[in-house]
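PROTEIN DESIGN WORKSHEET
SECTION A - STRUCTURE
LENGTH: 213
TOKENS:
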């Protein structure tokens, strides 16, 4: 399974990239707004740090297929490794179909059931982003969705890659890997949580003390 980092914070991206864990980045309008910076400026800076796929999302106010296509072309022109993130709607899928014919990579987002994922793949999406955490938040097991999409894509040899999104804990990552997901996009906080284990801390402390003797 590959790892992307789910943030628009360039310091976090640098740190995760330096650790050798990530090979891509996902952003969304909320993550960009949190940084208080211009969308294009942030995405451009991210391209100077990471060579792999970088998802930049169309504005939520852009709803018609022709406008999504126009905006997607602008976003894709920022750099060759840009992937345009588009919410799953009827107009969104029309745009995905047209963009895939032009060779523009897309990440269809806000996926909450397996037929949405299947339709996005049919339209030509490069990636689909099912949201685990937000399903867990409403007491529906998000991991079931990843398992279903993974099984369906395997049944039909679908090449669209599954990006597990809305990851909230190290357990989510292990579950996604077991479910056969292609990618997990992980917030920096969860990356650091994954590195922690109380026995690691105790072991380091013991080795430190012993090496001082
Ligand atoms: C990334 O592609 C998603 O936009 C993101 O993971 C959503 O995470 P959240 O549900 O924690 O906001």
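SECTION B - SEQUENCE
RESIDUE ASSIGNMENT:
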């Amino acid at each position: 399974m590959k790892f992307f980092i789910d943030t628009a914070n360039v310091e976090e991206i640098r740190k995760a990239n330096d650790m050798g864990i990530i090979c891509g980045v996902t952003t969304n309008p909320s993550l960009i707004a949190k940084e208080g910076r211009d969308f294009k400026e942030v995405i451009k800076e991210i391209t100077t740090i990471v060579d792999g796929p970088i998802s930049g999302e169309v504005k939520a106010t852009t709803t018609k297929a022709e406008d999504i296509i126009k905006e997607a072309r602008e976003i894709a022109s920022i750099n060759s490794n840009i992937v345009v993130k588009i919410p799953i709607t009827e107009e969104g899928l029309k745009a995905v179909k047209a963009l895939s014919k032009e060779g523009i990579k897309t990440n269809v987002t806000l996926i909450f059931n397996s037929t949405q994922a299947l339709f996005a793949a049919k339209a030509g999406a490069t990636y689909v982003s099912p949201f685990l955490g937000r399903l867990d938040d409403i007491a529906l097991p998000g991991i079931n969705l990843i398992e279903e999409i993974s099984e369906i894509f395997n049944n039909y040899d679908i090449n669209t890659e599954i990006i597990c999104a809305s990851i909230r804990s190290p357990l989510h990552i292990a579950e996604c890997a077991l479910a056969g997901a292609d990618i997990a996009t992980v917030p920096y906080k969860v990356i650091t949580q994954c590195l922690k284990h109380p026995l690691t801390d105790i072991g380091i402390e013991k080795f430190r003390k012993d090496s001082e003797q």
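SECTION C - NOTES
The two ends are 42 Å apart (CA to CA).
The mean pLDDT is 97.
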